[in-house]
Write a structure and sequence with these properties.
This protein folds into 2 domains: about 160 residues, Rossmann fold (3-Layer(aba) Sandwich), CATH 3.40.50; about 70 residues. About 35% of the residues lie in helices and about 25% in strands. The strands form 2 sheets. The protein has a 6-stranded mixed sheet, with helices on both faces. The chain has a 4-stranded antiparallel sheet with strand order 2-1-4-5, with helices on one face. A hairpin with a 2-residue loop joins strand 4 and strand 5. Helix 5 packs across helix 6 and helix 6 runs parallel beside helix 7. The termini are far apart.
Length: about 240
């Protein structure tokens, strides 16, 4: 059985500068890999390579054993859930339409799509009547829950999350982290989660990958990170002491 995601010696150049350099990495089905690193380390670029928003200049990125360049680009993007800060919601769409966007594009019938919206509102801990509200009527934490629900709408096997909880207050952030971990565990999703927050990484990850200047500097389980000896790993640990 192929890995859910695999980077094979991937280099990605943007604006004439290598953002990722010779990255080789395997992500197994069902795991949550957290990519940790400073701004500019290549974390978001890695996510965009997985769902085909970017293409590698060298090497290959494989999703379920098939290179992203061989996938139909639309099919690839619709088969992967993507969550960003504030959920990236459309302000002029209701919550129901935001969540049901991919099912709508996939031409689900209306009863099936409506049932899926209600199911996901329950999954992320929001009341059913939120379906008729607009993003401006929700708090930041509630909007982020909707963003997670939208990413899950078509039941993708892979979720990509780009610092999704970074704009939330600490209490709300902690609550949503717990809820996210429970959802991923319950639904057996493969998740690639980007953050620069070591505490968040340690709480959510089955493995942590540390990127620095576009290279994979360290990878291992969360409880191994405090014993990492690379210079960049020590710098991260000093930030949270």
């Amino acid at each position: 059985m192929p890995a859910a995601v695999e980077f094979r010696n991937v280099t990605c150049v943007l604006g004439g500068r290598p953002i990722l350099r010779e990255l080789s990495l395997t992500i197994d089905a069902g795991e949550t890999l957290v990519l940790l690193g400073r701004s500019g380390s290549g974390k978001t670029t890695a996510l965009k390579l997985i769902n085909g928003l970017l293409r590698p200049d060298q090497g290959a990125v494989l999703v379920n054993g098939t290179s992203t360049t061989a996938w139909d680009s639309i099919r690839l993007k619709r088969s992967i859930g993507y969550v960003i800060q504030e959920g990236g919601l459309f302000p002029h769409f209701t919550i129901a339409r935001n969540i049901g966007l991919v099912p709508e594009l996939e031409r689900w019938d209306e009863p099936r799509a409506r049932a899926r919206v209600q199911e996901l509102l329950t999954t992320v801990g929001l009341p059913a009547d939120f379906a008729h509200r607009y993003p401006r009527q929700l708090s930041g934490g509630q909007r982020q829950r909707v963003g997670v629900a939208r990413a899950l709408a078509a039941d993708p096997a892979i979720l990509l999350l780009d610092e999704p909880f970074g704009a939330l207050d600490p209490v709300t952030r902690s609550e949503i982290q717990r809820q996210f971990a429970a959802i991923v565990g319950q639904l057996h999703k493969t998740s690639v989660f980007v953050t620069h927050d070591l505490r968040e990484a340690s709480r959510l990850a089955t493995r942590i990958g540390l990127l620095h200047n576009g290279r994979l500097e360290w990878i291992g389980q969360p409880d191994e990170f405090p014993h990492a000896t690379t210079e960049e790993a020590r710098a991260f640990l000093q930030c949270v002491e």
